[in-house]
Amino acid sequence: MAEDNNQSAGAQAAAEGEKPQLKFSLQRIYVKDISFESPNSPAVFQQAFKPKVSLDLNTSSQKVDDNLYEVVVKVTAQVKDNETEMTSFLAEIEQAGLFRISGIEGAQLDQTLGAFCPNLLFPYARECVDNLVNRGGFPPLMLAPVNFEAMYAQKKQREAQQAEQTQ
Prior knowledge:
With 167 residues, this protein is α+β, with helices and mostly antiparallel strands. It has a single domain, classed as SecB-like (Bacterial Protein-export protein SecB). The chain contains three helices and four strands. Strands 1-4-3-2 form a four-stranded antiparallel β-sheet. Helix 2 crosses helix 3. The chain is elongated. It comes from Vreelandella rituensis. This is Protein-export protein SecB. Keywords: Chaperone, Cytoplasm, Protein transport, Translocation, Transport. Homotetramer, a dimer of dimers. One homotetramer interacts with 1 SecA dimer.
């Protein structure tokens, strides 16, 4: 009898137009694209390794299907010799994930795709870059953790400033 009351209460809540239940699940993590170049080898191995690291980090997302989104974290690490500016290596990876998300809309969905999902993917991208660089014959490149919430906030601030300037 109590089960009948719970089921009818749930049906009544749905009929009254309550918000749908929030659902979030990670479906798959995968490498979408990977590249490693060492254009000046073997010469780079014949001198002292004095690296100067340049790091570029971007995120993107797209809707794949109903409630299914692909999020991509792209990491580009370029290492040059600090004195000669000779490129030691260039490592690029696009770490991606498929996320099933429902009950989240608008700005909250945008923030989930732009900050929360990249936070889940970045440790995989870090490990992949480190492994790739190591396989290229160079010392490990341990990337520092990234605050995607702050990156997302900066992106939104830039968009708001651009919108003001166009008005």
